[in-house]
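Form 7-S
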Amino acid sequence: MKTITKLYLILFAFITLIANAALPDIVDGEPLPSLAPMVDEVTPAVVNIATEGSIKQNLNPLLADPFYRRFFRAPKQPMERKTSSLGSGVIVDAKRGLIMTNNHVIANANQITVTMRDGRKLDAELVGTDPETDVAVIKVKDDNLVEIKFADSDKMNVGDFVVAIGNPFGLGQTVTSGIVSALGRGGLGIGSYEDFIQTDASINPGNSGGALVNLRGELVGINTAIFSRSGGNIGIGFAIPINLATQIMEQLLDTGEVKRAYLGVSMQDISPELAEAFQLEKETGAIINQVFEGSPAAQAGIEVGDIVLTVNGKKLRNANDLRNRVGLLPVGETISLLLLRDGKKKTVNVTVTENQLANNKPDVENTLLAGVTVSDLEEDNPYYGILHGIQVINVEHDSLAWRNGLRVNDIITSANKQKVSSVLDFQRIVDKVNDSLSLRIVRGNYSAYLELNNKTLM
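Output:
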């Protein structure tokens, strides 16, 4: 027993000695690897963003009635509700004071305050924003800013080490590390154009708009979202590739808005069955299943059944990849497409034009649909070519349609049990219908019926 006790004492003393011993600075003549020098160089370019704003409230119609409030002594509800948010941003141009962040970080903001790593607080103004890619650019005035260098995000590989820097949960600047888990992630429902870098570097609420950098301290992406069932990080985070974000930023700086280029085709992914039918070695590229009359694609000679393999020499992953690359091009640019037609490769040059469908967004003239704006399904919509219907692009808060559950991005597939294929169809069906209206909508992965009637207008 005494021998066992002695062994425990010796083992405890040995463990304590190891625990108290400092790690050596050099092992075998080489310093221990550390991210500290890179982090110290990069973090001055990552800022915290705080916003204050307001949004319209979804009011109870009874509480908006003066007679009801007086009779029941109900308090008057405010028309607007104040909002605030915390996020992150990256200084991308020190001379001009330009900071890149996410649209959802500064949405509805009346005041934007930027806090630097050294504690300086600066007022920022909005330069421009693109909700469809969730990219925004703001601007500050200061002579002592540090910018970050850009990497070529197209050259990233799964397994590359990355570091995420941001302001999670409002704690202040925080650094986490991980690897690139996947590339080209899309179909997540986060934005209309999705080509995300997936990483397991911890990204949490407040990290949005922050930097995803490589081990050289170069910016490879803007942290945007996480996949989580609890709201916390589970190792699946997404960042906008910096090449994509830069394209958006340049358009915002030039014109203050982003104009979507238009090719004029409907397309789909290459399934295993299609790959076998077309004798393809890989299931990559996009097959054209419709070419619209008078479109740039039609003028360039693109045909149904063509398989697009590359755009400007770069291989395509899938149909979503083609949609992204075209939709993010400057209007008027000429691109080179490598096609596979009848087993032979063919190169065509296409000059993309502005998407005129984006300008065709008429307000629906109907009492039940007051405050609702709809549009034909555009080429960049994930339901394009899959569903027949129209997209809701605006619903005013506290409108009848809003109170009955209609939301932005809903797809209306029928009205009063009649199929809807276009805005013109919809207008014809709902014209002078002001007593009740039944809408079948698709939202995400489910569908539902919404009943609108004039009884709720009281």
